[in-house]
Specification:
Blueprint: E1 10-12, E2 15-18, H1 26-30, H2 32-40, E3 54-56, E4 58-63, E5 77-80, E6 83-84, H3 85-88, E7 94-104, E8 112-116, E9 119-120, E10 122-127, E11 130-134, E12 166-170, E13 178-188, E14 195-196, E15 199-203, H4 204-242, H5 247-268, H6 278-302, H7 307-329, H8 334-337, H9 341-361, H10 364-385, H11 396-484, H12 489-509, H13 517-534, E16 538-542, H14 554-575, E17 579-586, E18 592-599, H15 611-623, E19 626-632, E20 635-643
Parallel strand pairs: 16-17
Antiparallel strand pairs: 1-2, 2-12, 3-15, 4-5, 4-7, 6-14, 7-13, 8-12, 8-15, 9-14, 10-11, 10-13, 17-18, 18-20, 19-20
Helix pairs in contact: 4-5, 4-11, 5-6, 5-11, 6-7, 6-9, 9-10, 10-11, 11-12, 12-13, 12-14, 14-15
Length: 645
């Protein structure tokens, strides 16, 4: 009969072989929070179902290569269960048969099942001579189904570390009232392990319930813990990347990832992805890395810096893979075989640090962490150092959960507090910035007010100075003419007219120009056009739009107007011209705007230039411009060049 491959379910004459599943159904995942406490609790007493479930912890054993159940004539030996083949029969490999007898008080009319919490090795189950099922294909060394036991097994069988529970279904017609006999054929190959746990037989629903519990505690629960630990570790590492100075975040993230590797390899993965002993080394390094990183986390959490201890921890982590390899292949003597005791020494270190921190700080947080670490230490020591039947559930992965929850809560709480403090500081900073901004705005308004007042004062001073130097001086001259009585009415009227013209220039300079020369020239034409016509002088006005001039401040506008007024006065008084041409434009280089005043009167020589022309040149220089005067026989041309920028 062809055996079924691992990982499948099959039926042989109504008998179903079911290996454990590595993942829970969705409904069971949803209900995991409700059954977690029950799953971690010890198996309860049978109570009302005690008469239906049979628990077999005694058997008989015989070494035999026979493919059929050996006869009673062979030397069957009593054997207690669970039985660890390597411990009971060191240096013995091959086939062995276990015989178990159980009594049924009545004829069964429902499907029965057999549950084995741990079954390591290649095994087949028979009940009352009927084949029930097997775990995988037996080794074949020759035509008689005998393996070659001289060749060591290089790749260990599935479930090297994980405890793999098994469930076999038995048709009711294979059972009968009274004594029934079950046989387990077990093959243990060289270098591999073989274990037969205690056996539970009973109605399939009751046995399946117990089997599901065992699967959860042995495989599914550790698998969920491993996944959660890996995800939580990655999350903490992401927090550490945002807070590099908080090294304990990084150490705990590495702790959670190493713990996930250890739990998955030790309790969950039944088919190692890499050969032995490398898979065992990788799993054990996960445990050693977890403990080293947790020690470093504990030191950072306590606020201690012990460089020598930290260097020793890193050295231990670096050398451990090589010693683990020696332990797995059986070389190196006493140290490799007992190297695992170092994990308990280091566990004592970080638990001691937690208790010292709790004693020093005396907070509920530190006390909870110390207690959780102690619970984990006690459970691990109980399972590793004290006698512990091999088929009892291993609660070691669950022992880490309280401590991981405490550390996770502490780190997340600290991170949230840091965020809250940061937000509080930001809020305070924003409030202070708002206050400073309001103060600056108030200061700015005060400065603007002061600047306006200062500008008004300066403008008043300028106007007063211009009036004093211009109209004031002219009024004094006119007054002097009147007082001496030597001037005619025409002379006095001309003097007063010059006073009015100077006053108009001062008023025109106060008009806003917005850097535009046209309004300035327009006001000048309005003031001069009528007077020139009365004196028989034609005005040819060719003023065009020019680029804006940033130099057109009120004071500079007054300088321009005085230059032009002086030019027109000289033409009227001395040139005897009949026409005046006024033109504006941009020079060829595009750097200056020019104002040109040209007449057709009599010119003058440069050496005869008086004080008026010197004053005009001085005013042009104050503006930042340049004054050019070109006299000729045909008249005089004046160019005032003003900078564009």
């Amino acid at each position: 009969m062809r055996p079924e491959r691992w990982g499948s379910s099959r039926s042989v004459g109504g008998v179903v072989l079911r290996p454990p599943q590595n993942s829970l159904p969705l409904a069971r995942l949803c209900a995991i929070a409700l059954v977690l406490e029950l799953a971690l609790a010890p198996i309860p007493s049978l109570g009302a179902t005690g008469e239906s479930l049979l628990r077999l912890d005694h058997a008989e054993f015989v070494l035999s290569d026979s493919s059929e159940a050996p006869s009673d004539s062979l030397a069957w030996q009593p054997q207690g269960l669970p039985d660890d083949w390597v411990a009971s029969r060191p240096d013995v490999w091959g086939y062995g048969w276990y015989r178990l007898r159980f009594v049924l008080p009545g004829e069964p009319h429902e499907l029965y099942a057999v549950h084995l919490p741990v079954l390591k090795g290649v095994a087949a189950l028979y009940v009352n001579g009927g084949y029930i099922g097997q775990t995988e294909t037996f080794g074949r060394g020759d035509s008689t189904d005998r393996p070659s036991l001289e060749t060591p097994l290089l790749v260990p069988e599935r479930g090297l570390f994980a405890h793999v529970p098994r469930l076999f279904a038995i048709r009711p017609e294979l059972l009968h009232t009274g004594v029934n006999t079950a046989y387990v054929r077990l093959q243990v190959r060289r270098g591999a392990s073989g274990v037969l746990s205690r056996v539970t037989i009973g109605p399939e629903p009751l046995v399946r319930s117990e089997y599901d519990r065992t699967v959860f505690v042995s495989l599914s629960g550790p698998g969920m813990i491993s996944i959660f630990s890996a995800g939580f570790g990655a999350f903490i590492l992401l927090l550490w990347l945002r807070r590099r100075h908080e090294s304990m975040y990084g150490y705990f993230g590495l702790t959670a990832l190493a713990f996930a590797l250890f739990v998955a390899g030790r309790f969950v993965i039944t088919e190692p992805p890499i050969p032995f002993p490398y898979w065992g080394i990788l799993v054990w390094v996960g445990l050693e890395g977890y403990i080293v990183f947790l020690c470093l986390f504990a030191l950072r959490y306590a606020g201690w810096r012990w460089p020598r201890l930290e260097r020793w921890l890193w050295a231990y982590l670096a050398v451990s893979p090589f010693i683990d390899y020696a332990s797995f292949v059986g070389i190196g003597g006493w140290i490799p075989q007992h190297w695992w005791l170092m994990t308990f020494v280091l566990t004592l270190v970080y638990v001691g640090v937690f208790w010292a921190t709790a004693w020093r700080r005396k907070t509920l947080e530190t006390l909870g962490l110390a207690v959780a670490g102690s619970v984990k230490l006690i459970i691990s020591a109980n399972e590793r150092l004290l006698p512990h039947p091999i088929d009892l559930p291993r609660y070691q992965p669950f022992a880490y959960v309280p401590m991981f929850m405490m550390i996770g809560w502490i780190l997340i709480d600290r991170f949230v507090k840091s965020l809250n403090e940061s937000e509080k500081l930001n809020a305070e900073l924003e409030h202070r910035v708002a206050q400073k901004h309001a103060e600056l705005e108030q200061s700015y308004r005060h400065m603007q007010q002061m600047e306006r007042q200062q500008a008004i004062v300066e403008e008043r001073r300028r106007i007063m100075r211009d009036m004093h130097d211009g109209i004031g001086a002219q009024l004094i001259s006119a007054l002097s003419l009147v007082e001496h009585g030597e001037s005619s009415a025409t002379e006095i009227a001309a003097a007063l007219r010059e006073c009015l013209d100077d006053l108009r220039l001062t008023i025109d300079s106060l008009e806003p120009t917005e850097n535009d020369l046209l309004p300035v020239m327009g006001n000048l034409r309005y003031r001069l056009d009528g007077r020139l016509r009365k004196q028989g002088i034609d005005l040819d006005w060719q003023v065009r739009e020019v680029p804006g001039l940033f130099c057109l401040t009120p004071q500079n506008v007054l300088h321009i107007l005085r230059i032009l007024q002086e030019a027109f006065t000289n033409i009227v008084k001395h040139a005897h011209a009949s026409s005046i041409h006024v033109e504006t434009g941009l020079d060829a280089a595009g750097e200056h705007v020019y104002i040109q005043v040209r007449d057709n009167g009599t010119g003058f020589c440069g050496e005869h230039a008086g004080r008026g022309i010197a004053s005009m040149r001085h005013r042009a220089k104050i503006i930042g411009g340049r004054l050019e005067i070109k006299p000729s026989a045909a008249g005089t041309t004046l160019n005032l060049l003003l900078p564009v920028s």
